[in-house]
Specification:
elongated, 7-stranded parallel beta sheet, Rossmann fold, 2 domains, 443 residues
C-alpha cells in the first residue's frame, strides 16, 4: 500500500503536531517537510507500520522522530520501561540521532538515552534503569545490556530500525531479530533502508512488520542530479597522490571527504597531505572511539576541512558543508559508491564527486557506471596529465575481420576423415617424420 498524494502536507504547520514540537521545528528553521517527511509522517502518526526506502540526508531522521514524539506526548503512561527504541548500525549515526532527538524534544519532558559501544557500561545501565522514554542504541551493546537485565521493552510502543540494510550488511541480522523478539508485540515498527532491493531487508521486514505501508522514495539507481560526478585518470598510486593534493589545493569546497579502501592507505595519505598545509584528519575503524569522536567534532566545527576515511564514513555520516567527495580508491561495488558520494549534495545542495582511476580499476569503474546507468564526466588536470588515457580501442580492419570470419567457419566444418593405409598401421607408435600432405580417402 502506498501513500495517497492528497494526504501529503505542504508545510509542517499542516501536521497535527503538539505546540512543543512545532516550536522546536521553528527553532531549527524547518519550514517545509522533505519528500520522505511528507509521505512518512502522516501514516506514522496514524500508528501504521512502515517500510521506507530513503537515503541519508533526505530528512528521514525527523520523519520517524516527529511522529514518535507526537504519539508519546499524545498518550502519557505510568508504565515502567522504554517507550520507543531506535536501533542504528554505528555509534556515529546513533550519536547524530541522539543530538537531533535532544533538539526536537527541547520543549517537552521526554527523556532520551544513548546506548553504544565505547562508552561506560555501568553509566548506560543507569540510563536504562532510570526509565528513559526513548533509547537510541547500536544492536551489539544493547544486547549486552539486555543480558544483564538492564532493559525493559515489554511496554515498548515504537521500534525504529534505521539504516536496516547497513545493519544487515554488518552482520546484525540475528541481533536485530533477537531484540525485536524481546519487544512488546503490539508495538508500532518503522523500518528505514537506503534500498528495498536488499534481500535481507525484505526478509527481516516480513518478520518484524505487521500489515505495513511501503514508501519507496528512491532506488539504488537514482541519478544524484545535484552531484557532478567526474573521473580523473591516473598512472599509479603516486600519481593519484599528486592529483589528490592538487584537487584539494585548487578546487573550491567548504569541506572535503576522501575515501580509501583500506585503513593503511588512509593513514599513508595523512603526512603528505599535511605537508601541503592542508587541514586534514583521518578516520578508520581501528581507532579508539574517543579519538574517532574527537576527529568528527573537529571536522564538524571546520577546524579540519578534509577528512580521509575508509567506508566507515560512507554510511550515517551527516556533516553540513561537505561539497567535495574524492574516491582515492575506486569502491568495490556500485552500492558502496552510492553511499560514498551521498555524503555530498545533501538537502538539495550541489556537490562534486571525483574518482581517481588507474588502469587496474578501469573495469571496476565502468561496472559502476553501468550499474548506475550513468556516464561520468572525464576530467583532465593539465598540470598533472599522465600517460594512461583509458583502454586502447582496437580497430579491426576488413582483412582482419575476414580472417576471423573464415577461422570461425573453419571451426564449424566437420574434420575430414583420414584413411590409414595397411603399411602405416604397422608403424603406429613408432617415431617418423610426418608427410607434408596426408593421404586422404578418395572421393
Amino acid at each position: 500500500m502506498h501513500t495517497n498524494s492528497s494526504d501529503i502536507p505542504l508545510s509542517f504547520a499542516q501536521l497535527a503536531l503538539e505546540e512543543a514540537l512545532q516550536a522546536a521545528i521553528a527553532k531549527l528553521g524547518f519550514t517545509q517537510p522533505t519528500p520522505v517527511q511528507q509521505q512518512a509522517i502522516p501514516p506514522a502518526l496514524a500508528g501504521k507500520d512502515l517500510l521506507v526506502s530513503a537515503e541519508t540526508g533526505s530528512g528521514k531522521t525527523a520523519a520517524f522522530l516527529l511522529p514518535t514524539f507526537q504519539n508519546l506526548l499524545n498518550k502519557p503512561t505510568s508504565l515502567f520501561g522504554t517507550r520507543a527504541l531506535i536501533l542504528t548500525p554505528t555509534r556515529e549515526l546513533a550519536s547524530q540521532i541522539f543530538q537531533q532527538c535532544l533538539q526536537l524534544a527541547e520543549f517537552t519532558d521526554i527523556k532520551i538515552g544513548l546506548i553504544t559501544g565505547g562508552e561506560d557500561f555501568k553509566q548506560q545501565q543507569g540510563v536504562l534503569r532510570r526509565n528513559a522514554d526513548i533509547i537510541i542504541a547500536t544492536p551489539g551493546r544493547l544486547l549486552e545490556q539486555i543480558k544483564q537485565h538492564s532493559s525493559d521493552f515489554t511496554h515498548l510502543e515504537v521500534l525504529v530500525l534505521d539504516e536496516a540494510d547497513r545493519m544487515l550488511d554488518m552482520g546484525f541480522s540475528d541481533d536485530v531479530l533477537n531484540i525485536a523478539g524481546r519487544c512488546n508485540p503490539e508495538r508500532q515498527t518503522l523500518l528505514f533502508s537506503a534500498t528495498l532491493t536488499h534481500y535481507g531487508v525484505i526478509k527481516i521486514a516480513d518478520k518484524v512488520l505487521k500489515q505495513h505501508q511501503v514508501i519507496a522514495l528512491n532506488t539504488l539507481h537514482d541519478g544524484h542530479s545535484n552531484i557532478e560526478q567526474q573521473i580523473v585518470l591516473a598512472d599509479d598510486n603516486d600519481h593519484k597522490q599528486r592529483l589528490l593534493a592538487w584537487l584539494l589545493l585548487n578546487d573550491s569546497y567548504d569541506k572535503a571527504l576522501v575515501f580509501t579502501n583500506t585503513r593503511n592507505k588512509a593513514i599513508e595519505l595523512e603526512s603528505p597531505l599535511r605537508n601541503q598545509n592542508l587541514r586534514i584528519g583521518v578516520l578508520h575503524g581501528e581507532m579508539e572511539h574517543y579519538e574517532r569522536k574527537r576527529i568528527m567534532n573537529l571536522f564538524r566545527e571546520g577546524i579540519i576541512t578534509i577528512l580521509v576515511s575508509t567506508d566507515l564514513a560512507a554510511r550515517g555520516l551527516d556533516v553540513k558543508g561537505i561539497n567535495l567527495v574524492v574516491n582515492f580508491d575506486v569502491p568495490r561495488n556500485g552500492i558502496d559508491y552510492i553511499h560514498r558520494i551521498g555524503r555530498t549534495g545533501r538537502a538539495d545542495e550541489q556537490g562534486v564527486a571525483i574518482a581517481l582511476v588507474k588502469s587496474t580499476e578501469w573495469n571496476l569503474m565502468s561496472g559502476i557506471q553501468r550499474f548506475l546507468k550513468q556516464a561520468f564526466i572525464r576530467r583532465t588536470i593539465k598540470e598533472l596529465a599522465g600517460s594512461y588515457q583509458g583502454p586502447k580501442k582496437i580497430k579491426s580492419s576488413g582483412k582482419a575481420a575476414g580472417a576471423k570470419k573464415k577461422k570461425e567457419e573453419d571451426k564449424k566444418k566437420p574434420a575430414e576423415k583420414i584413411k590409414i593405409r595397411h603399411r602405416d598401421q604397422k608403424n603406429i607408435g613408432k617415431r617418423r617424420v610426418p608427410s607434408a600432405k596426408p593421404d586422404t580417402e578418395a572421393g
